[in-house]
Amino acid sequence: MDTGTVPLSRTIVGIMGSHRDDAPCLDEAALLGEAVARRGHVLLTGGGTGVMRAASEGAARAGGLVIGILPDSRGNSRPGYPNEFVHIPVYTGMGYARNAINAKTPHVIIALSGSWGTLSEIALALNEGMPVISLDAPFVEPSPGAPLYNASSVEEVLELLDRFLPPANSESA
How far is CA 111 from CA 48, 77, 79, in A? Predict the structure, then answer.
């Protein structure tokens, strides 16, 4: 079967963080979204505002594909959901229960500053044994054997990401 240039399988990186438009890490979220796209990975976020929008914008501007897992049903979305950079909105109608989809779908999660929703996504991902890279978001101290990695810079996050998911293309920058 001819699939053209669309790969049959793509790696997915989730970026999770605050919905607040004044979150202190929006610039980092945009840089990480861009880097994820340039590495050939699909970006998955909660599809909304704040960190989700900044990461989505970075990925979209770099030519990446953005999936947004939305808490509401189609036609019943809160303002900013989905943000304008989401290519594939997934309307769950599940509220915060959609965090399970956010946590179990990606191959790696990058967690930035957030609140209870972000913390629940981290916990669900760690429970599945998924690598979670936390950028200046010390929600919990890693327990022995837990795949939680704390990074203090965007560069350190990207080094860890490349360890778990080598770039799918040669454009990684």
Answer: 15, 24, 23
Average pLDDT over residues 141-156: 83
Q: Annotate 19-42 with DSSP letters as a single string.
A: --TT-TTHHHHHHHHHHHHHTTPE
How many domains are contained in the chain? 1
Residue 81 lies in a domain: yes
Q: Is residue 2 part of a domain?
A: no
Q: How many residues does the chain have?
A: 173
Residue with tokens 């704390």: 150
Residue 172 lies in a domain: no
Q: Considering the domain boundaries, does residue 1 fall inside one?
A: no
pLDDT tens-digit readout, 70-108: 999 998 889 999 999 999 999 999 999 999 999 999 999
Residue 16's Cβ-side half-sphere holds a number of Cα atoms within 13 Å equal to 34
Domain encompassing residue 58? 12-164
CATH code of the domain covering residue 60? 3.40.50.450
DSSP-H helix ranges across the chain: 26-38, 51-61, 99-104, 116-127, 154-164
CA dihedral over 51, 117, 103, 123, signed as positive or negative: positive
Is the CB of residue 25 less than 8 Å from the CB of residue 125? no
Distance CA 115, CA 155 (A): 23
